[in-house]
């Protein structure tokens, strides 16, 4: 069992809170002992490899599955137990988009209008016009990027307070991915929308997200605001050695050795006194990779 | 109005890149007192970045007294940055040029010189050898 590391606690109203959350399928825990707290108005990336438990976690959050252990709340209530409190304020974009390929785009909007009392038809039409997606087009004839845009438009037209997206950009080319993130960030700027998105692509998350949850093998390895996460990590490189001395002063997240050299990702802001180590700052992407490449969970004490 | 751009490989945090570009634009006179900065939404939609990042950059510039947020109207440049007279008369530039020529003479190529300058600058400002 891992002690999940929280770099700092949120100070504002909570939008998503998980406490000891777990899900077991048969004898296998898909997700175990997850605890984190995401403030309202934040944009959070849930990162991890395929099979790390990201979809399971999102499905638990939006109430599609029942937890085996612990609980998860959206805007203070459980989506499963108090759906009337949560569902009208929640948008969810599933990985497969749940669009009917035989429907025209206009038909999808009509479905949205009938299912959602707060539906904003003008916003939906304006978004699609700006993207140049014709309302008469059948969903099955749209490109992957356009389908993702229609799915996001449908979720935004609900006027949600929180939007949960499962791998929104996984199947998109870089340009379509950028377009989608633009639209998403524009919506966040407009309404103060809270966003929780899962992704196994981490290259441009740094510009989009202000909070991070790193998931590996069904456990939360790290959570916190991205700028504090970046500030709390350093890369040490030096001659080949066992990191025992360093580990006494600093938490070693991952280590890499060649014949001559040792490279350590450490979580610590303390000074490194041993001058054999070269100390470098490290970007978010490399930090995430460091946690994902951990073989054993980082058992440790929060500094 | 200025247009922000981002260098994702620079290692400089996104909000700080925005701060530096505003300072630079003000220093060069591209932005003058009374000019408006792009709205948060404009920046966000151009760069596909987190709105909180833009807010953080604007708050920092506001704290420095360089810009001022006017409720419901936008963010405006309040003052110029006086470039140092030394840089104006070019003596610092000349000294640097002669140093670069010396470095070239000693066999350093452009990349070596960049790395050395970056390392010394960082050491001078943070007191840390990187």
Structure description:
The complex is a heterodimer of chains A (303) and B (130). Chain A is α/β, with parallel strands linked by helices and 303 residues long. Chain A has helices at 54-61, 83-86, 105-115, 121-131, 144-157, 174-191, 205-208, 226-231, 244-249, 284-292, and strands spanning 14-25, 28-39, 43-47, 69-74, 90-93, 162-166, 194-199, 211-216, 219-225, 233-239, 251-257, 261-267, 278-281. In chain A, helix 5 runs parallel beside helix 6. The model of chain A is unreliable at 298-303 (pLDDT under 50). Chain B has 2 domains: 14-77, Arc Repressor Mutant, subunit A, CATH 1.10.10.10; 85-126. Chain B has a two-stranded antiparallel ribbon with strand order 1-2. In chain B, helix 1 packs across helix 3. The relative contact order of chain B is 0.11. The A-B interface holds A 41-43, 178, 181-183, 185-186, 188-190, 203-204, 206-210, 227, 230, 279-281, 283 and B 6, 8, 11, 13-15, 40-41, 44-54, 128, 130.
């Amino acid at each position: 069992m891992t002690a999940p590391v929280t770099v700092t606690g949120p100070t504002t109203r909570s939008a998503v809170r998980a406490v000891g959350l777990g899900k077991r399928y048969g004898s296998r825990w898909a997700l175990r002992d997850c605890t984190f707290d995401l403030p309202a108005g934040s944009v959070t990336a849930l990162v991890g490899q395929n099979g790390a438990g990201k979809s399971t976690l999102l499905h638990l959050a939006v109430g599609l599955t029942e937890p085996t252990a612990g609980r998860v709340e959206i805007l203070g209530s459980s989506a499963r137990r108090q759906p009337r409190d949560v569902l009208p304020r929640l948008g969810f974009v599933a990985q497969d988009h749940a669009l009917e390929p035989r429907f025209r785009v206009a038909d999808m909007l009509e479905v949205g209008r009938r299912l959602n009392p707060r539906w904003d038809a003008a916003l939906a039409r304006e978004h699609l016009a700006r993207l140049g997606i014709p309302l008469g087009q059948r969903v099955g004839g749209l490109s992957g990027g356009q389908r993702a845009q229609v799915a996001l438009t449908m979720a935004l037209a609900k006027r949600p307070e929180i939007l949960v997206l499962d791998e929104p950009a996984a199947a998109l080319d870089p340009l379509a991915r950028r377009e989608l993130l633009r639209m998403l960030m524009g919506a966040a700027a407009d309404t103060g929308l809270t966003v929780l998105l899962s992704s196994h692509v981490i290259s441009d998350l740094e510009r989009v997200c202000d909070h991070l949850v790193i998931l590996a093998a069904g456990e939360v390895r790290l959570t916190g605001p991205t700028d504090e996460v970046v500030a709390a990590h350093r890369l040490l490189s030096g001659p080949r050695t066992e990191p025992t001395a360093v580990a006494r002063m600093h938490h070693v997240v991952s280590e890499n050795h060649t014949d001559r050299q040792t490279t350590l990702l450490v979580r610590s802001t303390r000074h490194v006194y041993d001058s054999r180590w070269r100390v470098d700052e490290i970007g978010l992407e490399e930090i995430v990779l460091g946690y994902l490449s951990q073989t054993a969970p980082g058992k440790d004490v929060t500094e | 109005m200025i247009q922000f751009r981002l260098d994702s490989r620079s290692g400089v945090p996104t909000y700080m890149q925005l701060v530096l570009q505003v300072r630079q634009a003000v220093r060069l006179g591209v932005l003058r007192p009374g000019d408006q900065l792009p709205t948060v939404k404009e920046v966000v939609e151009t760069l596909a970045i987190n709105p909180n990042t833009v807010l953080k950059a604007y708050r920092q510039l506001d704290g420095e007294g360089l810009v001022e947020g006017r409720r419901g109207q936008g963010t405006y440049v309040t003052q110029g940055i006086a470039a140092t007279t030394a840089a104006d008369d070019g003596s610092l530039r000349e000294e640097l040029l002669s140093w670069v020529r010396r470095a070239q003479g000693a066999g350093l190529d452009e990349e070596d010189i960049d790395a050395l300058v970056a390392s010394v600058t960082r050491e001078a400002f943070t007191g840390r050898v990187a």
